[in-house]
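C-ALPHA CELLS:
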Amino acid sequence: MKIVTGQVMAAIDRGAIRDRGIPSLSLMEHAGWSVACELHRLCQDPTTPILFLCGRGNNGGDGFVAARHLLGWGYRPKVLLSHPVEKLSGDGRVNFERYSQCPFADWNAWGDVSDHYIFSNQPVVVDALLGTGSKGAPEAPLKDMIRLANQEARWILGVDMPSGVDSVDGSAEGEAPWCRSTLTFGLPKQGHFLRDGLDLTGSLSVADIGFPRDLLESAEAEAELITGKWVRSHLPSYAISAHKGVKGRTLLVAGSPGMLGAALLAARACLASGSGLATLALPRSLNLAAKAAVPEVMTLPLPETLDGSISKESLGILMDAASRMDAAGIGPGLGATLKQPNWPVISSKPALFRWSSMRMV
C-alpha cells in the first residue's frame, strides 16, 4: 500500500470527482460512515459519551456524517463546531444541515456553552477539525479545543490526520491531539509515520471510501506500507504433504558473549517467517545455552577466540554449511567483538547482513 502526501491524496480526490464523476458528497458520506463504524467497533456501547470536534471544512463534514449515523445506531453524540454555522460551506454545510435535522441532534458552537458542559463525563473525542491540507500551528479556537481534548478526553480518534500534524513531514508546530487511533482515507500519509506524527497518530487504520483503484495504484509515492495482504501474496504455497525439508534451509551466523539474545531472537524469527530448517552458527561456548533456549533450532558450534567471539578458523566450516543452505543471515549479536576483517563471502546464496557484520566481507 502506497504512502503519500496530503497533496497527492488531494489530487486523487480531485481526479475522482472531476474526471470520474464521483460526487464529492458520496465520498464524504463513505468517509463519515467509515468513522462511525470505527467508533462503534472501538466503543461497542451506545451509552458511551462521544464528542465530535468539527471544523468548518471537509474534515468537519466527515464528522457530521459520522455523528448522524451514530444517532441512527442508538448513540447520542455531542457535536462542537469550531466556528458559527454561518461559516460552514460546501459539502460540510450540507452534511451539517442533514445532521442537525435528525432527532436527538445535540450541537453547539465554540463559545456558546461552558467547557465543563461540553467535556463532561470524559467523552471519547473525535478530532474532525483539520484535514491533511493544513499547515502550521492551529490557531484559536482550534488550539484551545485540542488542548481541552488532550486534558479531558477518555481517548481520541483522529479523522484522516491528527489536527496540526503536517501530512508531509509529520511535524506538529503547536497544539495537536494525542490520538489513540486514527482512521485515514484511501491511502496512508507520510506524516503518519514521521516525527511527531508517529506518536500522535496512535494505531492507524485505512478506510476504502470509493476512490477508483487505478488512481490509488498510479499515485506518486516515495514509500510503501507492508500489509498482511501484501505479505500473503508474496509467500510461497505448499502442498498439505510438504515437510520442513522443502520449506527452505537457513544459516544464521550470530551471537557473541553478552549478546546471545540477539542470535536467539533472530533464530526464532527465522522459523516464524517460514523457514523449514534453521541452523544457528555461534561461538562454541554459547552452544549449550542456545540449545536450551531454542530447542527447535539446530546449532553449529564454531571455533572461537580467547574473548569468546567467532574466530577466522570458522570460515571453512561456515562455507561448507552455507553450501547446503538456501539463504543466510549474518550479524545479529556479533557486534564489536568481531576481530577478523576482510572475510571472503561465505556463500553465493541470498544473504541478509546486519551492518556491523559487513566487516566480514
Summary: The first strand starts at residue 2 and ends at 3. Residues 221 and 322 are 38 Å apart (CA to CA). The radius of gyration is 27 Å.
